[in-house]
Design goal:
mainly alpha, two-stranded antiparallel ribbon, about 0% strand
Length: about 375
């Protein structure tokens, strides 16, 4: 294939992708609010916000080979940042109600910057990114990778969980911070108007995050990430220092998780240290594994499928739904090790074509592939080789 033909093919794929994104955005942002009842729309908004953190995990795991089991840290930090701002929307001189319960008469110093909405927006992104960058630097500079990296991220998750869980006096500890009863721009955060706005913002940030990850993984930077994943030693011998790139991509992934956590917090109505529990961070990895890591679209699809399956199964089979969920995960891991999208990209597409009686796609001339004499000759040659 000539260079011109390749460029033309890439342009066509890009136009198709842009068209698909626009169509999905219209369906989610315009059609769904008229079709779904308020409760279901709110659920969809939560699930869409979770797809954002799944994209961040796919960026570091699927493309860079860094399996993080501690992304609940960055997710929760983003949620707390926005919740603290909402808690401060009070008349001058008043404090959030839980401070009164513990005898706190003056607002702690680290709460004061969250009076500012611009600072809060920056904190949602910057604080998780800084924490992820520092954690990544301490780990990657010592060339720790593989399962040891996963263990360290999980250990950091436990440290943050216990830290937040024990700060009853300053951030309400295990009870967390409620968001649905607070005001934002003069409107209750739990009202239908505000929730619809948060839903639309979830769609917007999902598209922006996807485009960011697509951009990062499609050029030279993306090829370098894949090279680090496949053979980090060879990357070092090629003159690159993987440490800086790994720290950077881990910080970006942490920032993405912070955005996801803030959107989820205002749509679920509360943020607590329970989002830093090990099970939730592992569940994030499962979403990506089900959809197909290293695909981006698989992270979105896997998150939506798993979360909707959890909701439907828990409603229909409240006593045994966890068994169904476990069976679903086992089937996907054993039968579809590359995830749903990975399967579709290899054998799945041909299997679906055969179900509808369509011809198998071949790389040469179809009449040669389907010629009975050639098939017989091929079988005879294979028999001789055996």
């Amino acid at each position: 294939m000539s260079k011109v033909a390749k460029l033309k093919q890439q342009k066509q794929k890009r136009l198709i992708e842009i068209g698909a994104i626009a169509a999905i955005a219209i369906i989610l942002g315009v059609v769904m609010p008229f079709i779904l009842p308020a409760f279901r729309l709110k659920l969809l908004g939560r699930f869409l916000s979770l797809t954002i953190v799944a994209l961040g995990i796919d960026l570091i795991w699927g493309y860079t080979g860094l399996l993080s089991l501690g992304h609940g840290i960055f997710f929760t930090l983003g949620g707390y940042a926005l919740a603290m701002h909402l808690k401060l929307q009070l008349p001058e001189g008043e404090l959030p109600e839980f401070f009164m319960l513990y005898g706190v008469e003056q607002l702690p110093w680290f709460w004061k910057p969250f009076y500012s909405f611009p600072f809060t927006l920056a904190a949602i992104v910057v604080i998780p990114a800084i924490v992820a960058g520092l954690l990544g630097y301490l780990v990657f500079r010592n060339r720790i990778k593989g399962v040891y990296f996963s263990i360290l991220t999980q250990a950091a998750l436990l440290v943050f969980f216990n830290l937040f869980n024990g700060q009853q006096k300053y951030i309400n500890g295990t009870n967390g911070l409620k968001t649905d009863t607070e005001m934002i721009f003069g409107v209750s955060a739990g009202s239908e108007t505000a929730q619809l706005a948060f839903y639309e913002f979830s769609i917007l940030f999902l598209i922006l995050t996807y485009l960011l990850c697509r951009w990062l993984t499609s050029g030279r930077f993306g090829r370098l990430l894949v090279a680090i994943r496949d053979d980090e030693t060879r990357v070092r011998f090629s003159g690159y220092d993987p440490t800086g790139f790994k720290v950077l991509v881990f910080a970006i992934s942490g920032a993405i998780a912070g955005i996801s956590g803030s959107l989820y917090a205002v749509q679920s109505g509360i943020i607590t240290p329970s989002f830093m529990e090990v099970a939730f961070s592992i569940e994030m990895v499962i979403w990506v594994a089900v959809g197909g890591r290293g695909t981006l679209i698989g992270a979105i699809l896997g998150t939506l499928l798993v979360r909707f399956a959890q909701t439907l199964l828990s409603e229909q089979f409240p006593e045994v739904w966890l068994f169904f969920q476990g069976a679903l995960f086992l089937i996907v891991v054993t039968v579809l090790p590359n995830g749903i999208v990975g399967w579709l990209r290899t054998d799945g597409w041909e299997y679906l074509r055969s179900l509808f009686g369509l011809r198998r796609e071949v790389s040469t001339y179809p009449q040669l592939e389907e010629d009975p004499e050639l098939q017989l000759e091929r079988e005879e040659l294979e028999g001789r080789v055996k």
